[in-house]
């Protein structure tokens, strides 16, 4: 190999079969704010908190301390950060529409959002639309009935999907505004939470108290 390289040869590495290179978002693509009111608080206080911790502290210590400080805030102070988050989210949506209108390609998770193919009048949406439809089905409670008998176990003995707690449009909107939409959907499908008889509003309140941590919210709901 060394002789090959010394003779001017160039070594190339094969990429993994079938793996597409990750797309990089444009520097002009607006960055979506995250974390709700807590996220705004952490962004503002991060350096201050880091300075208050002993030398050699862990990265997780910053988030832990921030969570304690945020939980100790009054409702009025928390509302200020929530208002700041909602303002940032509104500005993000407006900037994103301008970015797309100008021909910008939105990239999330290393993949570009795909639009429906030209000439397809069958009404079948692309993958991003499928995800939105799945969320709509969850909102309206139109989930598919679980199969009976052996088919309920699915392939390779996997358990059937759990029928989650119904989340109203109001609960989902509040969770979305706080940046907790995926968390409340996750929590609503936990078997223990489903069996507890809790409602969507209870799940949202538990997530607020835990700053969006699903497992902590579950423990609070179950009284563990």
Intertermini distance: 61 Å
Radius of gyration: 23 Å
Order of helices and strands: HHHHEEHHHHHH
The level of helicity is: 40-55%
Strand order of the largest sheet: 1-2
According to DSSP, the number of beta strands is 2
Structural class per helix/strand content?
mainly alpha
Unreliable stretches (pLDDT < 50, length at least 5) are 116-130, 150-162
Shape: extended
Tell me the β content.
under 5%
- Mean pLDDT level: 77
> Number of helical segments?
10
Major sheet size, sense and barrel closure:
2 strands, antiparallel
Structural account:
54% of the residues lie in helices and 2% in strands. The protein starts with a helix and ends with a helix. The protein has 10 helices and 2 strands; from the N terminus they run ααααββαααααα. The chain has 224 residues and is mainly α. The chain has a two-stranded antiparallel sheet with strand order 1-2. 17% of the residues are buried. Strand 1 (107-108) and strand 2 form a beta hairpin. The chain has helices at residues 2-6, 36-52, 59-72, 75-101, 127-140, 169-178, 181-188, 191-196, 200-209, 214-222, and strands spanning 107-108, 111-112. Helix 2 crosses helix 3 (59-72) and helix 6 crosses helix 7. It is extended.
What descriptive keywords fit this protein?
mainly alpha; 224 residues; 54% helix; 2% strand; 10 helices; single chain; two-stranded antiparallel ribbon
């Amino acid at each position: 190999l060394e002789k090959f390289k010394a003779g001017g040869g160039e070594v190339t590495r094969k990429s993994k079969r079938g793996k597409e290179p990750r797309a990089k978002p444009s520097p002009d693509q607006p960055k979506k704010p995250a974390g709700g009111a807590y996220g705004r608080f952490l962004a503002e206080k991060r350096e201050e908190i880091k300075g208050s911790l002993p030398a050699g502290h862990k990265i997780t210590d910053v988030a832990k301390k921030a969570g304690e400080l945020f939980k100790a805030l009054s409702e009025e102070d928390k509302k200020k950060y929530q208002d700041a988050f909602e303002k940032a989210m509104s500005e993000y949506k407006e900037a994103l529409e301008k970015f797309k209108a100008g021909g910008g390609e939105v990239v999330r998770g290393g993949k570009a959002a795909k639009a429906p193919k030209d000439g397809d009048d069958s009404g079948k949406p692309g993958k991003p639309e499928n995800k939105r439809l799945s969320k709509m089905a969850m909102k309206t409670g139109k989930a598919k009935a679980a199969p009976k008998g052996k088919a309920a176990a699915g392939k390779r003995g996997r358990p059937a999907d759990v029928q989650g707690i119904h989340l109203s449009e109001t609960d989902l909107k509040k969770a979305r505004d706080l940046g907790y939409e995926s968390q409340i959907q996750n929590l609503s499908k936990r078997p223990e939470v489903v069996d507890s008889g809790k409602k969507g509003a209870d799940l949202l309140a538990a997530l607020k108290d835990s700053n969006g941590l699903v497992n902590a919210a579950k423990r609070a709901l179950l009284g563990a």
